[in-house]
Amino acid sequence: MSPATYAYYPGCALHSTAKEYDVSTKLVTKALGIELRELEDWICCGASSAHTISRPLSISLPAHELVSAGKQGLPLVTSCAMCFSRLKFSSKEIQDPETREMVGQVLGEEVPENQEVNHLLEVLSREEIPVTRSLSGLRIACYYGCLLTRPAAVTQFDDSVENPQIMDRLLQRLGAETLDWPFKTECCGAGMLIPRRDIVIKLSHRLLYQARQAGANCLAVACPVCHSNLDLRQREMRSRYGDHFDLPVLYFTQLIGLAMGFSPAEMLLDHHFSDPMPLMREQGWVKKG
Amino acid sequence: MSRIGVFICHCGRNIAEPVDIPAVMEATRAIPGVVYVDENQFTCSLPGQDSVRRAIVEQRLDRVVIGACSPRMHEETFRKALASAGLNPYLLEIANIREHCAWVHGNDRPAATAKAIELVRMAVAKAARNQALFPKEIGVTKRALVIGGGIAGIQAALDIADAGHEVVLVEREPSIGGRMAQLDKTFPTLDCSACILTPKMVEASQHPLITLRTCAQVEAVRGFVGNFEVDIKQGARKVDQEKCTSCGICWQKCPEKVPSEFEMGQGKRSAIYIPFAQAVPAIPVIDTEHCRYIRYLKFNEDKEEGKAPPQCRICEKLCPPQAIDWEEEDSLITEKFGALVVATGYKPFDPTVYEEFGYGHYPDVITGLELERLMSASGPTDGQVLRPSDGTPPKTVVFVSCIGSRDETKGHSYCSQTCCMYMAKHAILLQEHDPEVQSYIFYIDIRATGKGYEEFSRRAQEEAGAQYLRGRIAKVYPKDGKLVVQGEDSLIGRPVEITADLVVLAAAMEPNTGAAEMAQRLSISYDSDHFFVQAHPKLRPVETQTDGVFLAGSCIFPSDIPQSVAQGSAAASKAAALLNRDHLVTNPMTALVDPLKCTGCLQCVAVCPFNAVETQLSREQRTLAVINEGTCKGCGLCVSACRPGAIDLRGTTNQQLLAEVMALW
Fold first, then answer.
1. Chain B nearest CA to A1, separation (Å)
2. Which of A77, B156, B213, B216 could form a disulfide with A6 if both were Cys (CB 3.0 to 4.6 A apart)?
3. Residue pairs spanning A and B at CB distance below 8 A
4. How far is Cα B269 from Cα B251, in angstroms, rounded to an integer?
5. Relative orientation angle of helices A166-173 and A252-259, to the nearest 10 degrees
6. Which of B529, B564, B572, B507 is nearest to B180 (CA)?
7. Of B355, B478, B479, which has the smallest distance from its Cβ to A163's Cβ?
8. Is the peptide bond before A151 cis (omega within 30 degrees of 0)?
9. What is the Cα–Cα distance from A226 to A17, expressed in whole angstroms?
10. What is the structure's pLDDT at A255?
């Protein structure tokens, strides 16, 4: 059994664009008896920028969170795939004593050698989840994104880089059908949205096309950036490619919450752009009309 | 006091430039026991050897030290020089002042000179304690065992037998022929593989000096060069070879159908079967795992729950000569051999680890060897290339090279050598089958280095219209019943996407199943990929470090047919040269156990890599270790492992090592 208390690193998106991820995470973990103690002084992980300009910066920024969690003596958990990736890279780099010393000088604090880092998916997949509302009827394409499994030597996330199963098995236990599809860990385009919107639309369109091809009636994601690209951009995909997907894109925490009996409103399902409500009505989880 | 002569070699300027030779000579003259010091431009030259011989006679030398290159180079040369001057050849000592000194300290002359003096002093100290050693003669069993009945093993067996020696050819499959039997046509001449292989298979089976043992495996190997004793497990066919007429009724009528290994799982065979039409021997074998009657017997024996399998026995009822023999069991045969040829071949790499390419997931992603079977006229589709998913002929085919080759993260670091050529062959053959087929070949480099290979590869491009795209692929995924291949054309620096009907992966060649265990049985070395290690990669390419064990074919490294045949013949010539001799001379520099000190702990047995330590009971019924001088290589592992210090190494005794160390002070 995993420890019941974690240091929680939400990352910047969870307090803004991915509020529904944060809210559902907190409700679900609380109901499961897991305490998430948000780091008090958390800062940006460096995301996609830091490691393209400065190696010391890209290791030191996440190391700040490692130090902070280390002080509390708690394992660290994050819900964002980018934060997870940067934290894992940083904790691998500081295995090297010279790097650890360098980072220690940057932060002005001693850096712990072995700070446990989890993605929320790893933590929740270890839990027994009481199901009061079976997710049967949902045909879910689990989308892990490109960062959780790669590089395997750093993230050590799942047995398979190309076809991970951890989210699939979790959602299957809740009664859902999960689909075998080949784009589980392909890139959605991520932060390329700012400089090259066309690339993101193309890549994300490809993902949704394949998910629909596989017979999905919704997607489950574990990353705020993946979510925003797949959820928010469906209208642009329609005007560019003529595909009407109308596929709800849900955080896996929202799906867990639904299975545990929380209402779609409590899980902030009405915050999405590709409306999940028709699917909820079809499932009989909200009243029709 | 011994009379030691020391000869310092200049090796041209190799040694003379970094080392001050006159200083070395002067220091050497002062060593007690040294009565003569000389120098040569090249001591290994004929005049150089003559000067050593003359000095031995004129100066009445009884020990010789040569300060020159590594003993791996010229120890044998100088031993012969000693012998021709009437001195026991083992009274020679070599101080390696080239590789161990001049070459590594080239920019520090005083240090190199000082070290050379020390090396010579050590050699003199050791030489003073050298004893005359005398090799022994051992007999030779004039028979060879060839392990593996692929093309390399068949060629080796034929050549040894043609040289007049008996050969036993052991093959674990029911037929000889190996991987070559599975191929359709062969590059670069496109002759039909079976047409050139089957005559050799028949010749091997009919040769009066060759005994074929199929369904057989080598279980244990004892002994040493010229005198191996091998346990062979002869698997039961459950068909009487004497009675069977190969009429084929049994395998046609057998109701149990299972995927055929020979067809790479793409076709079916029955539970009693011959693997392919031209199998040698053409005696069927009963697959005991799948045969209904044997499953029925096992069901009753184990008192399993549920419904019993049917008591079929159709083959037995229909067999005209009554050749089915349910009683036949595996047996163990022990035979003696003078030489062993190992030709255990390769197996294709399993591409399922490349999950992104979907092998095993999408039926239309296949390997090169699977395509061979689809192309073969005797294959599961009678030579029509059809998509496994829906049986339609493919029009767009994508080939991907280096699947498991040149990729340390998922496969092997090495190049499998044959794939570039067989991809070109496949493109040419596909185009011959159906001129509408368009082939695309993703490659890293085109490696076409054999005779006629480059021309053949160009033919694929120019005549068969194959599009070569330089780059790796990233992903294969299904779309509307076809496969989309995403890759990169690194020459134009752009991603490419091809919608294909069939994707063929050029899977790497890796050592056959059980290669490491086989190497351990034979006491030969294998590398990190489990290929067998040659005694010398250039100069002894088909020998191993274990005398009398020779190698051929893809168990050494991925080889194409011409290479495998050449290695088969080369191994055969080495084996025949060994078997032609009546006696072998052993290396006298072996370990020796002092029975008075041996406690019988047998730590030496555990560490000996050559199985050279045997046990014996003393008169007082104590267990003692005894070294087999025929097998011992003189490596010295047992000497350092021996706790009571009962083992010593002739030619490098503990006393001599100590004297060498003491000479440094």
1. 31
2. A77
3. 13
4. 8
5. 20
6. B564
7. B355
8. yes
9. 12
10. 97
